[in-house]
Write a structure and sequence with these properties.
The complex is a heterodimer. By secondary structure, chain A is an alpha/beta fold. Chain A has a single domain, classed as Aconitase, domain 4, CATH 3.20.19.10. Chain A contains 7 helices and 7 strands. Chain A is globular. Chain B has helices spanning 5-14, 38-47, 72-88, 100-107, 137-146, 171-182, 197-201, 204-212, 228-236, 281-284, 296-299, 302-312, 330-338, 341-347, 398-407; strands at 23-27, 30-34, 59-62, 91-93, 114-117, 131-134, 148-152, 155-162, 190-195, 221-224, 256-261, 268-270, 278-280, 291-294, 322-325, 351-352, 373-376, 392-395. The longest helix of chain B has 17 residues, at 72-88. The chains are: A alpha/beta, B alpha/beta. Chains A and B meet through helix 5 and helix 7 of A and helix 2, helix 3, helix 5 and strand 7 of B.
């Protein structure tokens, strides 16, 4: 599957408080409304400016902090194709896979805001069309490939009625 | 080769030896949700037509992040949790009971358990030798309905602590110092295992503080061996029968061992806006502070309140510095009342609130104004954490926080605040 869109660039240590601020705690039962504030505390222009299919591109330890699954859910709901980062905090990483949001560990240092990207999940590649560069991302563990391919953990359970994490 | 504590607990659950990196599907003993993450979890169970709790007495729904509810949306979220509890027999821990992690260690987590909670500081229960870890709503929902989850067996980072804390320095200072050394992703997906002579001497409250913040270094959980101190704590909570001795094997293999000597460790703070941005309180001294918060799952226990009260007794908060004290649970609140600590706080100019998480997560009860600085005993100082992205949070120990409330600016508590007044 190939995904195309432009890059929104963020720095290191983007926390779940940046993504889904605590002051909108009461909107957690209203995800479409919460999604209007996605990443607001990192970039106020992001939610209003993004186009469906765009990518969130960040530095180290993206998603650190809270276990709030609302964070990857509203990134996905806002129309973001995938999150690319140097590294991820692990609760966020797992939540993203569980909700069917691709999260890719890749060297993002050469990607600039607005760069046109194409991500090939099968080939494990990010092509920076603007800069003519191709980057390889770290493969997901097979368990996560399986859950992501099923569309997230709920879909996985609908399909199998249980954990079915053996690869192949 | 022997097993680390994390490996041993997981191996007991799956009935065979396990190695780091391996993926296992394992039984879970305790599952927990709170009012921020619970409604989404229960919505997933409805979607899966799995509205059930296989182990209802060990499934706890906490109403603590918005307690009492400041808005109708959150009151409605509480209704959802109570209604699930009624339908399934799960435990509703209502607004009066306390912060989930404090309630979990008081009444639910036991040595050898696997505990998953939809809150990142679930790792707190690791201090009772439980493999306790935070997950998202969907993972915990599945755990509630099936009694199982999947895990990658983590590598273990051993932290060996030696030496003695000097007066005015405590476990919080140690943990802030450690996270400053490791970095906020220095223990990513590792189990942290705390050991060494200084750890053996620590009371449970100090151990909870360390375990609580394992996730601030990226850790999966923060573990301690169960020993005589653990036993005494569980007995005090009226559940001595839940104790069993449990520790790592002497020949366990650790990915990394960190040796820390607390002799000479100074009161430490984490400056805005990351937990690993640490410095000594002395280095941050002089920064004007508009609010001090003493509470949370990190430092809202009776031992923390005693330290704060010993500094505040007979003194008064600075007129420009608000002081909010929040006991972490009903038990802590009652004990603080019995010891006269609440009177000390109120006399010093504090507002003592009901138990809960509201101030720390920026929901209600302590939201900061534009440009304001808060010194807090909580575990996170991220941008916007306390409800306002234009504010600044310093993390500190109860002693540093209490002394700061009196001075009106960040101070090292050893600068004349440890001597009793009045």
């Amino acid at each position: 599957m190939s995904l195309k869109g432009k890059a929104w660039k963020f720095g290191d240590s983007i926390s779940t408080d940046h993504i889904a601020p605590g002051r909108y705690f009461h909107l957690r039962t209203n995800l479409p409304e919460l999604a209007k504030h996605v990443l607001e505390d990192a970039d106020e222009s992001f939610a209003a400016g993004l186009e469906p299919g765009d990518f969130v591109v960040a530095g180290r330890n993206f998603g650190l902090g809270s276990s709030r699954e609302h964070a990857p859910r509203i990134i996905k709901l806002a129309g973001i194709n995938a999150v690319l980062a140097q590294s991820f905090a692990r609760i966020f990483f797992r939540n993203a896979i569980n909700v069917g949001l691709p999260v890719l560990e890749v060297d993002t240092s050469g990607i600039e805001p607005g760069d046109q990207l194409e991500v090939d999940l099968e080939a494990g590649e990010v092509r920076n069309i603007t800069r003519g560069e191709t980057l390889a991302f770290a493969p997901l563990p097979p368990v996560m490939v399986k859950i992501l391919a099923d569309g997230g953990l709920v879909e996985h359970f609908k399909k199998y009625g249980d954990f079915n994490l053996k690869s192949g | 080769m022997g097993s680390t504590l994390a490996e041993k607990i997981i191996a007991e659950h799956v009935g065979r030896d396990v190695a780091p990196g391996e993926i296992v599907v394992t039984g879970v003993d305790v599952t927990a949700l709170q009012d921020g993450t619970g409604p989404l979890a229960l919505q997933q169970l409805e979607e899966l037509d799995m509205v059930r709790a296989v182990n209802p007495g060990r499934t706890i729904l906490f109403m603590d992040h918005a307690a009492p509810s400041p808005r109708k949306e959150l009151s409605n979220a509480h209704q959802v949790l109570r209604s699930f509890a009624r339908a399934t027999g799960a435990v509703a821990s209502d607004i009066n009971e306390g912060v989930c992690h404090q309630r979990l260690v008081e009444s639910y987590a036991s040595p050898g358990d696997i505990l998953i909670g939809a809150d990142s500081h679930t790792c707190t229960s690791g201090a009772l030798a439980a493999f306790a870890t935070g997950m998202g709503s969907t993972d915990v929902a599945i755990g509630i309905a099936t009694g199982r989850t999947w895990l990658k067996v983590p590598e273990t980072l051993r932290v060996v602590v030696s030496g003695e804390f000097s007066q005015g320095v405590c476990a919080k200072d140690l943990m802030l110092h450690l996270i400053g050394e490791l970095g906020a992703d220095g223990a990513t997906y590792m189990a942290m295992e705390f050991t060494g002579p200084a750890v053996e001497r620590m009371n449970m409250s100090e151990r909870f503080t360390l375990a609580n913040m394992a996730v601030e270094a990226g850790g999966k959980t923060g573990l301690f061996a169960a020993d005589a101190t653990t036993r005494a704590y569980l007995e005090e909570q009226g559940r001595g029968e839940d104790y069993r001795q449990l520790g790592p094997d002497p020949d366990a293999a650790y990915t990394l061992t960190l040796n820390v000597d607390v002799d000479g460790l100074e009161p430490t703070v984490a400056a805005p806006h990351t937990v690993d941005n640490t410095m000594t309180a002395a280095a941050a001294a002089g920064r004007q502070v508009q609010q001090v918060f003493i509470g949370s799952c990190t430092n809202g226990r009776i031992e923390d309140l005693r330290i704060a009260a010993s500094i505040l007794r007979g003194r008064e908060r600075h007129p420009h510095t608000r002081l909010i004290v929040t006991p972490a649970s009903r038990r802590v609140y009652l004990q603080a009342a019995a010891e006269g600590l609440l009177k000390d706080f109120v006399e010093a100019g504090a507002i003592v609130t009901g138990t809960g998480c509201g101030a720390c997560v920026g929901v209600h009860g302590g939201v900061l104004g534009d440009g304001e600085v808060c010194v807090s005993t909580q575990n996170r100082n991220f941008h916007g954490r306390m409800g306002n992205v234009k504010s600044y949070i310093y993390l500190a120990s109860p002693a540093t926080a209490a002394a700061t409330a009196i001075a009106g600016e960040i101070v090292d508590p050893r600068e004349g605040y440890l001597e009793p007044q009045g």
